[in-house]
Amino acid sequence: MGEKKKNIAILGSTGSIGTQALDVIRANSDAFTVEVLTGSSNADLLIKQAIEFNPNAVVIADESKYQYVKDTLQPHDIKVYAGAKAIAEVVEMHSIDLVLTAIVGYAGLESTLAAIKSGKQIALANKETLVVAGELVTALAKEKGVNLYPVDSEHSAIFQCLAGEFHNPIEKIYLTASGGPFRGKDREFLSTVKKEQALKHPNWDMGAKITIDSASLMNKGLEVIEAKWLFGLKAEQIDVIVHPQSIVHSIVQFTDGSMKAQMGLPDMKLPIQYAMGYPDRMKSDFPRFNFINYPQLTFEQADTKTFRNLALAFEAMNKGGNAPCVLNAANEVAVEAFLKDKIGFLQMSDIVEQCLQTVHFISRPSYTDYVETDKETRRVANLKMRNTQ
Ligand code: NAD
Ligand code: MG
How many other CB atoms are there within 10 angstroms of residue 223's CB atom? Predict the structure, then answer.
């Protein structure tokens, strides 16, 4: 680490990634300070974090909580703002060195673009931004000289394998997938599963949306598209392999046939810390891997006939344009409906598929086109859902 501390803005500090990032910062207070914290509606947690980490500013997205947060933080020297626009504005603060984008879903797009526009380095957890508008985001980052450091464990693994190899072409990558709680199950079984079962992930403790995405393999589909943009790959260079132990976090295969993998216990704090500390590896006391506990590491093909979301994601990626944006918006609506017990597990893929077929295709979308596509897809998805009930 250099002498100067890195000033971090955490967008989505009250979530699973956000709170773990604060754990990393707490353990490395010599290296990092917190400049900005933002949350959606959990005002009490945001206030608690603000009092502990003393940021320059906090933003609560839910405007109805503004007065409460402001009044409670009154004795502290912390600026308080509210609303989605304020999140996109606060990232422009000159004092910020790095923005960790840990908002979930499409809602993170505007603030991520704003952060890149103002030249901030990005630790990217919000994979949906790259799924929705990967071309726009990566082009803007290139123009502004901004690095996108991956936080997603698979992409962090690829990034770690590429250290010292950035000049060497990649032949292909293997993204590993745990397979989620329903690995090996058939469609008949899946037709009856409820959210309580889907929310029990075998290896990772994450936010609700990504946990459902992991159970349906949509998460891996989103990650395939995320990898395409982060590493500049073609569809045929990206493969998915199911690895239930989640120890090998992903693999790069180079043009000489050599394969490099990154391994470790499944713990998001490691990729979060790597992204925030890059290029340094900082000492940690995270639990260490022990071979005795893992006599076997196994690998198997993903079942895309049962878990159609993965196939749909490849389809959307191959189609390009606004198709991945459609895929993402339809999925966000479907997951929310599944979490409210409004639709069944398998219907989530039906809605995504129907939206991909219905929503108007745009081959070279602008930012406004993405905004419109997201809106239109949500409208269509809600309509299809009403018709299938
Ligand atoms: P989460 O639901 O636990 O947290 C989401 C955060 O975003 C919260 O702070 C919430 O207040 C905020 N938020 C939600 N909606 C918002 C809105 N409309 N406006 C402003 N803020 C909003 O989610 P998470 O599991 O921490 O995931 C965050 C992102 O990181 C997702 O894109 C996810 O795919 C990615 N990710 C998560 C994990 C993990 O282990 N949790 C791993 C890899 C990638
Ligand atoms: Mg992941």
Answer: 29
Range scoring the smallest mean pLDDT among 169-173, 205-209, 275-279, 363-367? 205-209
Report the chain's mean pLDDT, rounded to a whole number: 97
Ligand sitting nearest the alpha carbon of 217: 2
Residues of the domain holding 79? 6-150
Give the CATH number, domain containing residue 327: 1.10.1740.10
Q: Are 154 and 250 in contact (CB under 8 A)?
A: yes
What spacing in Å lies between the alpha carbon of 312 and ligand 1's midpoint? Answer: 23
Structure-derived torsion over alpha carbons of residues 205, 206, 207, 211, reported in degrees to the nearest 10: -90
pLDDT (0 to 100) of residue 389:
62
115 within a domain of the structure (yes/no): yes
Question: Please, which residues have CB within 8 angstroms of residue 170's CB and are 6 or more apart in sequence?
Answer: 162, 231, 233, 237, 252, 253, 254, 255
Cα 64 to Cα 83: distance, rounded to the nearest angstrom: 9
Res 1 pLDDT > 60: no
| Distance (Å, whole) CA 220 – CA 250 | 12
Look at residue 340 in the predicted model and tell me its pLDDT: 97
In the structure, which protein residues have their CB atom closer than 6 angstroms to any atom of ligand 1? 12-18, 39-40, 42, 61, 84, 102-104, 107, 125-128, 152, 204, 206-207, 209-210, 268
Secondary structure letter of residue 300 according to DSSP? B
Q: Could you tell me the CATH number of the domain that includes residue 35?
A: 3.40.50.720
Q: Residue 167: pLDDT band by 50, 70, 90 thresholds?
A: very high
Could you give the number of structural domains in the chain?
2
Residue where a domain terminates, one of 150, 165, 183:
150
Q: How far is CA 32 from CA 28, 53, 243, in A?
A: 6, 11, 34
What span, in angstroms and rounded, lies between the C-alpha atoms of 57 and 65? 15
Domain-embedded: residue 128: yes
Q: Is the pLDDT of residue 202 over 90?
A: no
Distance 167 CA to ligand 1 centre (A): 33
Mean pLDDT on 171-196: 97
CB of 149 closer than 8 Å to CB of 278: yes
Amino acid at 375: K
Q: What would the mean pLDDT of 365-386 be, rounded to a whole number?
A: 96
25 and 8 Cβ atoms separated by less than 8 Å: yes
Domain closes at, from 135, 150, 165: 150
